[in-house]
Design brief:
Blueprint: H1 6-14, E1 38-42, H2 50-61, E2 65-71, E3 90-94, E4 97-100, H3 104-115, E5 123-130, H4 135-140, H5 142-152, E6 157-162, H6 170-194, E7 206-211, E8 225-227, E9 236-242, E10 248-254, H7 264-269, E11 273-278, H8 286-296
Parallel strand pairs: 1-2, 1-5, 2-4, 5-6, 6-7, 8-11
Antiparallel strand pairs: 3-4, 7-11, 9-10
Helix pairs in contact: 2-6, 3-5
Length: about 300
Amino acid sequence: MRRKRLLPVATLLLCTPALAGTVPATAAPQAAPSDPLRILLTNDDGYNAPGIRLMFQRLTAAGHDVTIVAPLTNQSGSGTKLTSGTTVTVKHPEPRVWAVDGTPGDSVSFGMSEVFADRAPDLVVSGTNFGPNVAALATHSGTVGGAVAALEHGVPSIAVSTGGLAVPVPEPIFNAMRPTNDFTVKLIERLQARAKNGRLLPEGVGLNVNHPVVGADGRGTARGAAVTAQDPQPVLRADYTDSGDGTWKVDLGLVPATAEEGGDVAAISADKVSITPIAPDWNAGSVDFARTATLLTGLRP
């Protein structure tokens, strides 16, 4: 069930055709329409992954003040996990780059507390991720988890991923990261132009952006953008085979399912950019809440 607040965000983003397509990868960077933003950039692939480095370059070229605070190692699939330990190792290998030996959530937490201790960033961007984060993949995604952690700190956030629901081929995905990053800059410019009272997004709302891989080489332009809901399908299923020695072989496979109309899977399958509003809680929508409350009426210990 979609949240009631999805419609206002949809109106904010798509009431004009400015986001109808992606800027070609060869387009020259455009100046931001207003003051540069202070951006905390994180991910779940690791601070030195190609996706985050390309995003750093693109956001910086657009005039923004960007600082990477990201995991030291690959943390894909870590979701919203926060490490419960008494110490954390943090490296500062170069200016504007901090590498936290933990999850994306740990990285955002450290960034808010230490790197941006004087003043919170204007925006947290998490990505660009190698591969999609749609449907159930988004629920377990460290990329989305980093964006959720930012929302918990009261900072607007955008999770960004590149890929479709197919066996990943590295080169086309890497190529598609450039139009992904161009679109992200255009999206941020739209939010800046529409910002009210200084807020880029409604309070407590973030965006999960998924850009498709268009064309055999991934350099193609997306066929538009759509504000979507998270498709409820599971996407992946694990099959386990007993090895007989206490270990089990795990094989992951795609679960065939029909894409839900208006969902993120349908959008990227149609070569469109999917923009899904997200919130830092697991509340059901108002209709589902009411239905469930009716089922539980009169229940007593």
